[in-house]
Amino acid sequence: MEHQDKNQVILLAERPAGIPTESTFELKEIGMPELKKGEVFVKLLYVSVDPGMRGFMNKGTDDAIGLKFEIGFPITSRSVAQVVESKSGEFAKGDIVSSRLPWQIYQTIDAKKVEKVDPTLGSISTAVGVLGVPGLAAYFGLEKIGEIKKGQTVVVSGAAGGVGSIAVQIAKIKGCRVIGIAGSEKKIEYLEKEIGIDVGINYKKTDDLAKAISEACPNGVDIFFDNVGGKTFDAVLGSINKHARLVICGEISDYNENHPPQGPRPHHILIQKSARMEGYVVFDFMDEFESAKKEISQWLKSGELKYRENLIEGFENIPAAFIGLFKGENIGKQMVKVSDVTSS
């Protein structure tokens, strides 16, 4: 078996109370796994870190979103890897694959649980970014839940993040007026000048967010794509139009709350506006993944859709990259580069 590097794994050391810290994780050196029939032996290349993973760290039962992490066992997330050796007829040495994988540099996995990455669609890291769950979440949230149409007004919270930065661009491609909410002037500059949204709102510099949204949306809000929840959701709610769609993709403001604060109950406004609020999991639309990836890929190749990765290098830095999500450090998709691709 060809490898020269040591093998390491990152485990869940303790369940966090609030925002995870370095003590939430344990970096451990381990031996190399033994490859069995029907498996592939892979090395990690890119690891995605996503805010929604925070919920997997809480004690509880598994649900539709994913498996809960157990203390003393590896953290897992969507990752890109390269096949080092294969005992499966489906994969060969050098193949690039993607799956939900443990945070472990070298590992074996059932070949049925990985899929090949198509390098013709985009760079291989996009398999866990714009052409992976983040991009697909933006695409299906707007297309299927939001039922987006040209000329509508779309508001996106967490607009400079991995999902939000794609959602605002899809909305622009579809011919909508787009307002993005983010938490720094650097992010607002990125959204307005580089991506080209209509209005960016820095919620940290706004005394009255509801008023700022109302002023930015003089014709009301047709679609609210929400990645944040909490007070941001409350602020947008008062500006929604008749038959508005509220697309609930995430709630990063509450992921670290042991007892999330009770905000305004939206029932009355939803009734009054004949509006619809709907949450979703991207895997609800798994049967349409490939066609969606092809359309997103075309937007990338044409230059209509710009993609930014906030790339952090080093396996040992995965916990810090994850923690950084809750400090608002990233513009675009936060991910970690673990290894270089090995030439065949």
Features:
344 residues, alpha/beta, Quinone Oxidoreductase, Chain A, domain 1, Rossmann fold, 2 domains
Distance between the ends: 14 Å
**How many structural domains can be distinguished in the coordinates?**
2
Low-confidence stretches: none
Fourth-level CATH superfamily of the largest domain: Medium-chain alcohol dehydrogenases, catalytic domain
CATH architecture of the largest domain: Alpha-Beta Complex
Mean pLDDT: 92
Please summarize the sheet with the most strands: 7 strands, mixed
Summed up, the helix count is 8
CATH topology of the largest domain, anyone? Quinone Oxidoreductase, Chain A, domain 1
Strands, total number: 15
Helix content: 10-25%
Alpha-beta classification: alpha/beta
CATH class of the largest domain: Alpha Beta
Compressed to H and E, one letter per element, the order equals EEEEEEEHEHEHEHEHEHEHEHE
Shape: globular
